[in-house]
Fold this sequence. Notes:
Blueprint: H1 4-28, H2 58-62, E1 85-90, H3 95-107, E2 112-116, H4 119-122, H5 146-152, E3 162-166, H6 171-184, E4 193-196, H7 201-207, H8 214-231, E5 235-236, E6 238-241, H9 243-247, H10 252-272, H11 277-280, E7 284-290, H12 294-315, H13 321-324, E8 328-332, H14 344-358, E9 363-365, H15 378-394, H16 408-430, H17 434-439, H18 442-459, H19 488-502, H20 505-520, H21 526-534, H22 539-550
Parallel strand pairs: 1-2, 1-9, 2-3, 3-4, 4-5, 6-7, 7-8, 8-9
Helix pairs in contact: 3-5, 6-21, 10-12, 10-16, 12-14, 12-16, 14-15, 20-21, 20-22
Amino acid sequence: MFEKTKIDEVREAARKWEEEKVAKSVARFPERKERFEFTSGIETKRMYTPADIEDLDYCEDLGMPGQYPFTRGVQDTMYRGKFWTMRMYAGFSTAEESNKRYKYLIENGSSGLSVAFDLPTQMGYDSSDEISQGEVGKVGVAIDSLKDMEILFDGIPLDKVSTSMTINAPASVLLAMYIAVAEKQGVSADKLRGTIQNDILKEYVARGTYIFPTAPSMRLITNIFEYCSKEVPLWNTISISGYHIREAGSTAVQEVAFTLANGIAYVEAAIKAGLDVDAFAPRLSFFFNAHNNLFEEVAKYRAARRIWARIMKDRFGAKNEKSMMLKFHTQTGGSTLTAQQVENNIVRVAIQTLAAVLGGTQSLHTNSKDEALALPTEESVRTALRTQQIVAYESGAADTIDPLAGSFYVESLTSQIEEQAMDLIRRIDDLGGSPSAIDKGFMQQEIMDAAYEYQKQIENGKEIVVGVNKFQVEEPAPKGLLRVDMSVGELQKNKISALKEERDSQKVSETLEALRKACQGDDNLMPYIIDAVKAYATLGEISQVMRDIFGEYKQSVML
Length: 559
């Protein structure tokens, strides 16, 4: 990309500057650290020049926006035509309460919905189950049956809104409910737009809301791929999540590597199931975190796009360019929010928002300032949404494509993250692929080591978290936090009892028995799950049928 003689001149000029200028300055004013580096160990040099990117091939490594290898973005004009989807993550208490919050967000300019489910729903239990006690409606909305899903989206036209659902182990059931609700609204499945997370591998690695062992879990995922490719073609069938890997304590490099390694596993499973790569790969999507180091995050997104494009083209032989595009949703870093001086979180979220936009995200959720303490209030949610809108309309960051491209620092960092992430992916390949590496505890151990190292850095003061280990103040106890009424559990129990009185019990039994037999065979399970959902079988009843046949995953104990 640069002439060799010019690069040599730059190197010589940099050498003289270091010897004649920098050495004297450092002697008088020592730098803040002996070594500046990211948590992944990549060093941040004092200065970057063309010599740091001398091997960069513009066409092969960068290319044009919307063209392979998509380093500069997956759309030809990016945000000059349309902003990213401002998709606010919300859900709490009952379907009725969450429906009100969704309508509030839409009225305030949110262009997409993102559904948070409570813990029992995520684990495939009804609210009436003994194990659900005390958790109903706490961290998200309780959905026990199609009846709840009908209430959740009442008055929200599903052909007009894009919906993301953070659901994994029972993703097939919740998707079935969504399809059934749309049908009741008169909206055909081929009109639906949105995403289900449906990423079970990261649950084993980092999050823990798994139900079934790896083999049946992968079967359910590939069943969804196949069904949606024919019946729900606009739907993103999986959101392969690095977000929770980062929340568990990984570095940015590990977030990229482990996420894409999981993506490789899903592609391999789908191909093994007989699906053509170009039939399902265009509907794969990804989900990344946004942390506070602006430049590392931007470089991370750019590197991830380039790696995925090359994997899909070279490893899987994809022919359709859309199969090579890494499209992703971003959420600002929940683990970066502090309970101390919560107003500081607004600034953190603003920086993270800017990183996601400069990095070319397709949709974005911004966390609210008070989420380190409780579920967010309407006021704090509005501020979080306004943060996106200010970046979109006032900052100028969306007016040109990939504005940090060509920065010696950013391009060098992008390449370094790519190199280190590929090294980790090769290690995972050597272990037999992502599921095998998970079973052996490799990813889990790597994340735990990284999290431990970072916590040590905070405790010894080498990493500063404003308001936590420096610039502390005495604060009164927080007021006005959102609290979920503990009566929600009883309300949901009563709903389930009423439902069971009203529904056709014979029809429920027939659909559940048909699902049971299908689980024992090789049929695609989605049509059977949809039939059960339409008969108003509950989430817990459907999940229990699959538990009976598939069993439950047992996490390996690591010491």
